[in-house]
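Notes continue from the previous slide.

Worked example: a multi-chain complex. Inputs as given:
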Amino acid sequence: MTNIPTDLKYTKDHEWAKKEGDIVTVGITDFAQNSLGDIVYVELPSVGENLDKEATFGVVESIKSASDLFSPLSGEVTEVNEELSDSPDLLNQDAYSNWILKIKINDQSEFDSLLSASDYEPLCQE
Amino acid sequence: MKQTSLCNAHKELKAKMAEFSGYEMPIQYSGVKAEVQAVRNNVGVFDVSHMGEFFVEGKDAVKFVDHIITNDFQNAGLHKAVYSPLCREDGTTIDDLIVYKLKEDKVLICVNAANIEKDWNWISSLTSDFDLKLSNLSENYSLLAVQGPKSQEVLQSMGFQDLESFEYYSAKEFSVHSKDYIIARTGYTGEDGFEVFADHTTILNFWDELMKQGVTPCGLAARDVLRLEVCYPLYGHELSDQLTPLDAALKWTVKESKDRFIGKEALINLKSKFRLIKLSIEKGVPREGYDVLNEKHEVIGKVTSGTMSVTTGKGIALALIERQQFPENKVFKIQIRKNIVDANYHTKAFVTGGHK
């Protein structure tokens, strides 16, 4: 069974989001890391970059394939998880404690419209 | 989609399955890293039953095979295996394959799954001047590749005798517990190992026994990493209907000293259009189709195969470079999405396998 914490929001692209004030932390889900297999590289955006909702902001690569990461929200990148540059496999170990980036959001309603855990679960069928 | 006789066994092991050359094949089981490491350090097994088996039997069997391939088979000893391209008169490559001299009048040709029909049509059109019987037994044979430093030990414990004296790149017919096998000391990983050809039921039992012995089941994803680490070409990537063996750094398999063989005239006179090179990068993963650039950032070629090497931890690639544009200073870069990254040029394979 895939792990889907109920206190997070989700996207159909298998990413999670967590809001604290106007900062949203983003990562990939347990289902995503499991489908990808051994993750060997994460390409991150630069701090200060402005992202549009659903725009590509980076790439996660497994041995077999490269998958785009999509920004769940619009806003400015305030922090990226540099640890992933040297240890991309952290995402395989725990996809929820190992976040990918933090975004300062402009529009609260974008966060509210993300999927709840129960909405996301049906998207995790093999 | 076709299935191999082991399809259910793979599914029971929770393998990720995908279509490959028309077959539903296991891509990975526990994980690509663990599978690659099992083969480099211990022993793993691959179901490669999708590959094709042709048999040539009769007085002219060896002479015929020598005539259709570019490498030397006539002078290979009894039981020897030989890797060779199979070319048209114009030197372009139909397939690459391994031929096994099982007897002086019996040869096994093992071909790529995707090319079975093309190879069969070609080879069967060439037999008229030869005294032989050609048969396509691809549907009758299953094939397992047991690979890794512990593979001899595993086969010995299953009753296969005299493996110490069984040379790398040779093949023999075995009968063990009244089951018939063709065993070849060949593989696609660079490690010591055996390819085991037998009928479907025999292979099913053989697989079960390997699982009981704790041999790691390995999928095609690990197989691709393993072959790329030791820089073995893969048809459809480094070789194709448009390329000659000379383009893929396979001149060593084109034996101009042979009296005659199909493609000889073209291959003697042709200059290669490409150079196949080995590149690695420090961060990221080069992928098939990425552009290779020179110092001035001009496109001079393309990556034909790329992956993350499990053994070296680096992104590794084979790339075809236009011969005319090959840079004297050997400075290469790879375009990865919007980034241009420095690539290291290698003259030797990324990994030295431990085969005998």
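Summary box: Residues 2-50+139-229 of chain B form a domain with the Gyrase A; domain 2 fold (CATH 3.30.1360.120). Chain B is about 20% helix and 35% strand.
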